Amino acid sequence: MDLADKLMNVIVITISLLALFFLHQYRFLNSLISTVRTLFKENLTGKVVLITGASSGIGEHLAYEYARRGARLALVARRNQRLQEVADDINFWGSVYSSYFAQQHLKKSKGKIIVISSCAGWVFAPRTAFYNASKAALISFYETLRIEFGTQIGVTIVTPGFIDTEMTEGKFLSKEGRLEVDREMRDVQVSLMPVESVEKCAKAIVESARRGDRYLTVPSWMETTILWKVFCPEIMDGWNRFMILGPGSSYRDSPSKKILDVVNEIKQLLLP
Ligand SMILES: NC(=O)c1ccc[n+]([C@@H]2O[C@H](COP(=O)([O-])OP(=O)(O)OC[C@H]3O[C@@H](n4cnc5c(N)ncnc54)[C@H](OP(=O)(O)O)[C@@H]3O)[C@@H](O)[C@H]2O)c1
Fold this sequence. Notes:
Number of strands: 7
Number of helices: 11
Bound molecules: NADP nicotinamide-adenine-dinucleotide phosphate
CATH topology: Rossmann fold
């Protein structure tokens, strides 16, 4: 076993490092394929699209984008029901159950699943452990299903960064299961990070699914954070810990919030 491990260490690491030399060509080939796919995008007229979480944010704007392209919509939300679940049975199991029941129909109709995960699936910002875990679980689950479905059902995994919705306005689920708005917590988490418009995000998602892409990250520059996570995770973890947790016990002391406060004060001075 020791010998097998040693051999694998040499062979796999050498092949992986060699493969990195061809990364550029591989990415170029992928963009070429994506351009060709753009020419043969799916026609959405009359297609049935089920959107969960359609009463606000990304889901709401996806509904507008699909409606504009002539799709028939089934919209799901829960706004006026009492909150009974906690956030970590929602994000993962909500998607698992709906996919489980829909898969037979999707196979017959050569349908598609669009998974709204998050960059939080690999950028592990502190204070949102259950959210991050559920998003990482979604990625693993649908990566596996994509392999199992083969060409029967297309799976596009979307990983948004910060998008301008109720979520980035500071909507959180309290321990008691109540929806609450906490602007200060929002400032700690989002700070000076650019927030993408929800309209642009929804449009990019629909077009990506029509092309049959495997992944989409919005905004696309957030994709580079994967490199940081893979090649220098210590730097990424240290940065997140320093910026979001900070030296004090309260999240109000975090550098990410303090920097935002200073920038806002300067803005007020310059633009009264
Ligand atoms: N905004 C961002 O920066 C960002 C970044 C990364 C990933 N995401 C992901 O994008 C997805 C959409 O978020 P958003 O930003 O559009 O937030 P949002 O504006 O708060 O929308 C959330 C939607 O989900 C519905 N919902 C919540 N709990 C539900 C439940 N238990 N059953 C059924 N529907 C439920 C809400 O409707 P009701 O309250 O009426 O049920 C609402 O329509 C989420 O998965 C989020 O994690 C967002």
